[in-house]
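Design a sequence for this backbone.
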């Protein structure tokens, strides 16, 4: 039986919100309702601290990737990462960031970014927190900044400083293709 689309969307948006939080953003709102001019389901609003342009692009791409990765992880389909282009808005954001990278091999950058996202989400304490966030989002349909602050306490408040280092993730969970 296929999972409820609202639950899947909740995991997708929770992935965006959770990773934005881990990267230092303040998540202002998360909703399963699309923007008026958007056909995609769900949206996540984040306020970012100032950072150099390259770091802003990297964060944006990692957060865009986190939605599909969380969704695939929830579905038990992490081996389907080659289908990222199915998430049009997220993929456009990743492509925009990749185009701005100075490295000549964008696929190598993409593999590195995917490994970072998987490493951040595969850690058991991180996945547990993301699941709690997805459950709350599915139950309420949207979460405001105050509720998000309760669900996503400052990094380290729960003793689980999260790393985006792919080496921190079990090799079976983060089989990144590093040709």
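Sequence:
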């Amino acid at each position: 039986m296929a999972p409820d689309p609202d639950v899947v969307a909740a995991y997708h948006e929770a992935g965006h919100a959770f990773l934005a939080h881990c990267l230092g953003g303040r998540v202002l709102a998360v909703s399963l309702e699309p923007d008026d001019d958007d056909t995609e389901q769900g949206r996540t609003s984040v306020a970012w601290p100032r950072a150099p342009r390259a770091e802003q692009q990297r964060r944006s791409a990692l957060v865009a990737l986190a939605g599909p990765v969380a969704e695939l992880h929830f579905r038990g389909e992490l081996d389907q990462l080659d289908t990222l282009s199915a998430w049009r808005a997220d993929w456009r954001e990743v492509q925009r960031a990749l185009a701005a990278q100075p490295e000549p091999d964008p696929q190598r950058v993409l593999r590195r970014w995917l490994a970072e996202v998987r490493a951040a989400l595969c850690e058991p304490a991180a996945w547990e927190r993301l699941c709690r966030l997805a459950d709350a989002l599915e139950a309420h349909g949207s979460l405001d900044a105050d509720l998000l602050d309760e669900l996503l306490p400052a990094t380290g408040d729960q003793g689980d400083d999260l790393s985006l280092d792919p080496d921190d993730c079990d090799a079976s969970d983060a089989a990144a293709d590093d040709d």
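The first strand starts at residue 26 and ends at 31.
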